[in-house]
Amino acid sequence: MKLAQGVLMAWSSVRAHPLRTLLTVLGVLIGVASVTVLVAIGQGSTRQIERQLESLGTNLVAVNIIGRGTRDSLSPEQIDRLMDMEAIAAYAPVISGSVTVKAGSRSATVPLEATTADYAWIRNHEAEQGRFLLDIDNALAQKVAVIGPEVAEELGLADPVGATVTIQGIPFRVVGVLEAKGATIGGSNDNRVFVPLQTARIVLRTNAIRTVYARVSEPELVEGVVNLLRLRLASQFGGPDGFNVFNQQEIMQTFGSITGTLTAMLAGIAGISLVVGGIGIMNIMLVSVTERTREIGIRKSLGAKRRDILFQFLVEASMIGGIGGLCGIAAGLGGAWIFSRAMNIPAIPSPGVILLAFAFSLGVGLVFGIMPARRAARLDPVEALRQP
Fold first, then answer.
1. How many CA atoms lie within 13 A of 32 on its CB side?
2. What whole-number distance in Å separates Cα of residue 68 and Cα of residue 360?
3. Residue 312: CA atoms inside 13 Å, Cβ hemisphere, count?
4. What is the value of pTM for the model shown?
């Protein structure tokens, strides 16, 4: 039997029972659609995280001191010695906390970071209005503040620059509004307030520095800087348990690995429905063999060989799997687009995964069609013709 003839006969059989075909392909359709959606969303989420981290710079290093109290913090002199490396282009100590900011009758509780002028360059932040903190602000402990766009919106400040707000009851003059960047792995700076490091004592009532951000001059030097920082901190804190040193490259690799693993696991779970769909194909093909026993007997009596019958039923099973695969791809792409719009997460369909899912759907139909096809091919034509 020629391939074209087998395909036409299989198509005629599939069209003869549209409802049965629809119910049979549902399992394969759901499996392929699920895999397509999950992989597209997984890859889109990974790319979104990578872009967020890249926007902060791949040569960013962060030092966090664990614990409470001045004994578990760094002094400015200790930070200067710690960061004394040619590879470090700039560093910015940070004292952070939560504060209440008021403007007129409106107030908001937001994170506050007391830092230095280099913070904006190190973290790749720019002021959309006004300016960021200056060295002179720190030197004179000026009561000035830079706010995120969300803070300005919450406080109802239509023209924030030059406005006066109170932070923990202390008046501060707004000198700048940061450009909106959205949420990143470390949180969002859009809802933060920044003040000079030297004002932390009056706002947060502490001088304990537990976070330092540093920018390495070249990305290839990051690993060496991180290792040296860990060595210096370990000697100062008596071991590795008192601090953490992070860098963007490690975070990108870690999140890429995590999202990749989760996507693969979810796609694998979704792929189980493909197997369930294959079982459905096998069941319906067995029913088809029983219903068409007399037809098989007639074809054999007219000269059809066992391989012709086998081929016909295998093509039919593969066609059902293929139809489910094509419909699943279409449904998956549509579902990924809808999910992307609804959740504001980019969806990046993978052509390779789509082709693999379609090939797998054909394979499922072929594999689970073998047993019914062999049963049909082995029918005795005499016994088959006796069937009503």
1. 32
2. 56
3. 24
4. 0.64
